[in-house]
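Table S4 entry, Molecular chaperone (Small heat shock protein).
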Amino acid sequence: MTVPARRQSHSLLPDFQELMDMFPTFGALRPFDFHTIRVEDKVEEGRYLLRAELPGVDVDNDLNLTVSNGLLTIEASRSEEKAEKGRSEFRYGSFSRTVALPEGAKEDTIEASYDDGILTVTVELGRTEERAKQIPVRH
């Protein structure tokens, strides 16, 4: 059985957000704070599985998933307010992440669920044809 080829390869280096997560927080502030969504993905048993960390998101009002031309886009926003002893804090932000689906992904079979702050998206994979072909060279 062949493993479907990915349209986009992952680098051996961590992404920029992971590097920024290594900085200690000073009063909940990092030198850079990019509103990104952490994801993990894998192919297993003929399905593409993506899990995204989205704690505190109201699924009905603040989460939007779209797919177009082999790209899955996750958009979310969240807000949080705390008030205690005459002091209040609030945090809010929008987050977006676009992921290339593997070749052979059947976009019409996408299913998504949300549980305990984790968004899980599954996509059925079909067979992909070999795309390599011999090209004659004229001389």
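Residues 5-9, 25-35 have pLDDT under 50 and may be disordered.
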